[in-house]
Backbone:
């Protein structure tokens, strides 16, 4: 019994770190507390708030190789009250040789719908690791690779009372999947009176009352995930104007349009996003009569 107890204590002591072929593995919080790494978290304006809005800049302070785990469900708190807090939506493992530095973007989504998205000057610090319904949702997002507006709307359904029946987008099957997942997660019945308004019903995109239209021309060399998004002045997406996660390689003309009777802000930004990276950013000030 005494030997068993000693083994149990050793297991608990080592549970936050373990040796691997690439060095000892620590979660980021433990590595920072033990002063094994220096870490800075900043915003990433090359990607929208629902894909990779966060950059980590990390340095191994030791003479040994390390692996640093950033777990799914880790909350990241903004140092500005005006900027969204984030939550990690895909676990990351960073291998560092002795004294090595590395910078890379991280998959995350915002958890405060009505605050502004980050910019390159935004700084963050580690928040709490969630273990509730939010963690179940971020694990579902990682499993399905739903680093898109549907995953983001589902996050807001937990954190900002976003209506689950309004979790919608170009992929109606995936949208319905997340509506049902959220209904089960919240133990509620999915509303049957689904809105068919332009704002929430994507099949109605051809019936625009007063539209602004445009086109992007772009060429890429391999199959890519392409989105055209309509963003407000807080850099928050308000509508997908086009989406295809398996766009074929080649030169493309991407047409877009939106209803200015529905989206009435004086300024919008229309962004062409390829594989999570903003390639074209066009400011638009719709004329109104």
Residues:
């Amino acid at each position: 019994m005494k030997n068993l107890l000693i083994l149990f204590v050793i297991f608990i002591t080592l549970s936050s770190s373990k040796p691997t072929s690439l060095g000892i593995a620590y979660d980021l919080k433990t590595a920072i507390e033990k002063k094994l790494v220096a870490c800075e978290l900043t915003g990433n304006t090359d990607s929208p708030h629902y894909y990779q809005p966060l950059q980590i800049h990390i340095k191994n302070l030791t003479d040994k190789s390390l692996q640093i785990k950033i777990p799914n469900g880790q909350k990241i708190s903004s140092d500005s009250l005006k900027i969204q807090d984030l939550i990690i939506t895909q676990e990351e493992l960073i291998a560092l040789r002795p004294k090595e530095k590395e910078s890379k973007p991280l998959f995350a989504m915002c958890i405060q719908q009505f605050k502004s998205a980050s910019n390159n000057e935004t700084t963050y610090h580690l928040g709490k690791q969630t273990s509730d319904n939010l963690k179940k949702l971020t694990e579902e997002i990682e499993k399905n690779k739903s680093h898109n507006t549907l995953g983001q709307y589902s996050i807001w359904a937990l954190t900002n009372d976003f209506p689950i029946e309004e979790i919608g987008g170009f992929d109606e099957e995936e949208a319905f999947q997340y509506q049902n997942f959220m209904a089960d997660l919240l133990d509620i019945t999915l509303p049957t009176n689904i809105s068919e308004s332009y704002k929430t019903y994507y099949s109605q995109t051809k019936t625009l009352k007063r539209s602004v239209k445009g086109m992007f021309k772009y060429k890429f060399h391999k199959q890519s995930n392409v989105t055209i998004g309509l963003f407000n002045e807080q850099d928050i997406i308000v509508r997908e104007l086009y989406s295809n996660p398996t766009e074929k390689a080649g030169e493309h003309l991407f047409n877009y349009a939106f209803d200015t009777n529905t989206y009435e802000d004086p300024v919008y930004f229309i962004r062409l996003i390829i594989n999570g990276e903003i390639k074209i950013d066009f400011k638009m000030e719709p004329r109104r009569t």
Remarks:
- Residues 1-15 have pLDDT under 50 and may be disordered.
